Every structure is written in C-alpha cells, then in structure tokens.
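Q: Give me the 3D complex with magnesium ion.
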Amino acid sequence: MARTVFHVDVNSAFLSWSAVQMLRNGYDTDLRLIPSAIGGDEEKRKGIVLAKSIPAKKYGVITGEPLWQARKKCPELVIVPANYGLYSRMSSLFTEIIDHEFPVWQKYSVDECFIDCTGMEGIRGDPIQSAEALRSEIKERLGFTVSIGVSSCKVLAKMAGELKKPDAVSSIFPYEVEKKLWPLPVDELFMVGRSTARALNLMGISQIGDLAKTDPEIMKKRFGKHGLSIWLYANGIDQEPVVSTMREEPKSCSQSVTLPHDMSCEKDIIPVISRLCAALAYRLRRLGKCCCEVTVFFKDDKFVTVSRQQRLFRPTDISGELFEKTRSLFRLIYDGRPIRALGIGFSALTPKEGCAFTLFDDPANLGRKFAIDAAADSVRSRFGGESLLPASALISPTFEHLKRFEPNEGHIRTVCPF
Ligand SMILES: [Mg+2]
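A: Here is the predicted complex, encoded as structure tokens.
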C-alpha cells in the first residue's frame, strides 16, 4: 500500500526560537527580519554562527563560520548567544503538537520530525490539506514557521521539504520525481556528501536524474552498498519505516517564572502560584498522571534558593487540590523576604488509572472536581493553556504585567533556571 509520509522541519530553528522568546519578553525587533545570527561568545573571538536569519544570509553570512568573520561581512549583524535550554523546550512544544495530532511520528533531530499519516485522509483531508493544517497550527500556536515535505517515503518527503522555505508545504509524489527531483544537482540528494558528489561529477553525473538513469551495477561497483542506496533514492525508492518515537515517561514536572519585579507581599505572590499550578496541573492531566508530591521553590533577591517538598495524602491531578497544597506549603516556608523568581513542581508521578481514592473522599464532591477540570481542559486545549484561569490567579495587580511574560500552551517560561 502506498504510504503518506511528512517531513516537518523548523525554519532556522535556533534563530526562530530565540526570536520568538525575545518578542515574548518585550524585545521590539523580530530577529528573523533583521541581519542576525545565533552564536557563542563574540568578545573572546570564540564561537561560530550556529544559525542565521534570511537577511543575514543576503550579506553572505554562512552557518559554521567564525563570528568575527560574519561580523566583517555584515557590521550591523545582531548576534544572540545560544540558549540550549530554550531550544529543548521549544523542541518539545513542537513535538507535542505533532504527538497530539498523529499517532505515528519519529523525531529525527531537535527540529525535524517524520510523520507517517497513511490512511488518515478520512480525518485530516488529503495529504496536502493535512500538511497545510499542521503548518498553520504550529505557526499560530508557537509563533515559528516550518517547512513540510509530503511524499510516499521518508527520503522523498525530506527532499520535498527542501524545495520551498520558509513556511511552506511541498510535495514530491512518485509521479513527480522526474519533474521535481531529477533536475536538482546531485549533491542535494539525501546522503550524498561532498566527496561522493565530486566523484559522481567526474563520472559525468551532475543532476539527480543522471544518477537515477545510471546502471545500478556501476554504482554498486564504484561506491559499494552506499552507491546502491543513493541510486534507489535518486529513483524515489525508500522502504525505511517511520519508527515511532517513544515519549519518555516523565517522573516529574515543574514550572517557574521570574517575576517582573521583586515581590514580598503574599497577596501578589499567591496569584502567581495559582497560575503556575493551573498550567502545571493541566500538563499533568494531559500526561494522564497524578502526582504524590508537590514542591515549592523560590529565589530571593540575594539569589538564595529556598525549596520544600511535601508528600500528599493521596495522589491527585485536581487543580484545586494541588493549588491548596502548594499554597499552604509556600506559607509554611515563606518568611517575607523579597522574591525574584518562583516555581512549583509535581513529582512522584503515577498513572492516573492506578490512583485509588480514599475512604474519606466524598465521591460526589470528587466527581464535581473532575468535571470542572475536564471542562476547563477542553477550553484550554482549543484556545491555549492560558485561555482559562482560576479566579485566584486574577486578583493580583501584577496580573497584566505578568501576562506579557508568559507564552501560550500552558508553559510558563522559565527565565531563571533553578
Ligand atoms: Mg531546520
């Protein structure tokens, strides 16, 4: 049966991710629209260009070159240090959307996934429609763009994704191989490195089509097994399955935020805890877990971290209960000092199905709590994690101020890692 395979690739991933983050933090320029690059420490004349914007590319800035050299080409180049913690969070948000929509997908690199969506036409429309919907969903919800290649196998899907960038869907279906794949230079074929390309050029093979039409026996004799593989790729033949990425079973989750200003008043701090709790409890329920332990931690204005953990009476995923617990734990450890950052954690996670309730629980009351969370979650899953908040999160005068510090999707950004 013919398969349908997508290759999804984030456009200039590191640069886009930093740009999105900086815009959310109130930086008024979009790095993607100016000559900019992600790199190491320029001062020490160390570091290379890890990613560049399209305007930087126009100045001839290339990935992998030393920063000082890039600066020479483009004196106004804005260089932003790499933030790997951010990239790994963005990468998870990206795969989370894919995981939500598709049962079979494979993480190929930090910013690339293969998806096997064979037989999903009934739910998602034809493959191009389906890819377009995914492209715009990622853009809308996460603020960065992807290119999606659509085909019947992994190699062709990956090659298709290269055809149009950024923010685009392109296909190379088997019947389009001759028209779209064959005219490309042979060094653009998947798995053809620089030295193989040189050797192929010497054999008079300059386009992928030339390679496709070469006798496979010649390829095998000259390049061994690899020669046969690239001959198959040039002909659009690739049987490699999309191997499902196993989502790691999380043991704990946490959420923290750097406050817009130091806070020492409980009536300002509690709404922040409520907000963190709402977002984290939502994540917990999406994971299908209950937690047995909660942690509250904060960093004061002298950068001293205070943290306390407490075992729960029984495992739970109920927002209201988790908020009550974290609030009382915070009150237990807080002594009135100015706080610059605040976080909560849920740990000792256990599958929800296995969670037993106790004799002291009133089933009707518990049922009400589950129903409230389920209703709130259905709103959040449609409109974003911050679309619905408990009233306890809204009474703070700093609410509006905080708002701009937080992205969607129930992930309150960690500015300062604990
Ligand atoms: Mg990429």
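A quick observation: Residues 397-418 have pLDDT under 50 and may be disordered.
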